[in-house]
Amino acid sequence: MAQVAIFETEHFEGAYPVIRLFDNGENQITIFSYQQSYRQFQYLFKDDARRFKWVVKDDNESKYHFIYRMYKEVRRNNIQLLYLNTISNNHIFYVLMIRLLPKVRSVVTLHDINGYFHFKFAFSLRRWVRYTGKRSLVRAVKEFNVVAATMVPYLQGKLPSWKKVYNVPGAVFEGMPATCPSPVETGKINIVVPGTIDGRRRNYETVFELLQQCNEAGLPVSITLLGSHYGAYGEMILERCRAYAASHSNLSFYQNSPVVDQPEFDRVMNNAHVVFTPSVIDTIIFDGITETYGLSISSGNLFDVIKHAKPFIIPDALRMPDNMESSCFHYKTAADIFLFLKRILNEPSFYNELSQKALNNSREYTIPKVRERNAGLFLTEAKSR
After folding, report:
1. How far is CA 300 from the centre of its chain?
2. CATH superfamily for domain 3-172+367-373
3. CATH fold group of domain 183-364
């Protein structure tokens, strides 16, 4: 039996598989979380949530105090492994905690690799402090995780050879999800674009181009933007959605919620025929540093696809793990997507074969298989529940 602590502030959907993978019937698991993520964890784990110890940040508690409270909990409970799944601020304080816990094995997930190794000058003390904290974190930690297999060699190339890089994905496949009737049966194709409406991550212009082409040709499609919105760009896209919805009925979106609760998210995903990821390739997330999707950063949409076993559509330039290629369609223009959708409606066997490939690909991400690929990380022999 091992004492394991898992820390997550915002990527609750990505921490869920980490918890499931360590939950082998022997480990004692403590989860450190913020309130919003804790709420979503309750939806995800349901009755199983009672098996874990939860340490949740109070709304009026400072981040610094919560880190200190984590430190005390780790020491008090003789935690053997501390898995930090998302560190998005105050990096130097996490470095201090790690250094004050020299006997505790620490693993850190890097979501945006370049930001930990490159610095772009600006007259900003905060930017310099962040970069200093990130570089100190890389030096302090011996074991790292990245969520996509395509990111592993990229990070390995930036670290000393003796440091370890794991690939614990942002989702695991836990069995056949709820199925929906095929596009031929429903008479239309249900398309979902999951994730926050954020111009740093996805190009929604392609969504509107696709809608226009489908409307002009009379191709029956329905698109759902399955996420809340971020910043001025997100508000601009919402305004376009409202204008479009005034005269059309085949676009759905969420206007007033800071997050789409997990039950609603899963319901829409289960009813989807295809997942559409209009990902940008090169982007700037923090401090002027360019990240490349599929190389130094990964889209969470990949893990929505894995969890729900859906065929998906991605830009031609987006790198994808080899074991997911057979169920995805690469496009260069919205016209390419239109032809792909047209084939789905005209050839029932084509969609059935694509769905079967998606299911087969998701089966490569079961809990036993992910544990096996990361044998050095999981502390005791896996015993699936």
Report:
1. 3
2. Glycogen Phosphorylase B; (3.40.50.2000)
3. Rossmann fold (3.40.50)
Which residues of the chain are in CATH 3.40.50.2000 domains? 3-172+367-373, 183-364
Q: What's this model's pTM, rounded to 2 decimal places?
A: 0.93
Q: What is the pLDDT of residues 82-141, one digit of tens each?
A: 999 999 999 999 999 999 999 999 999 999 999 999 998 888 899 999 999 999 999 999
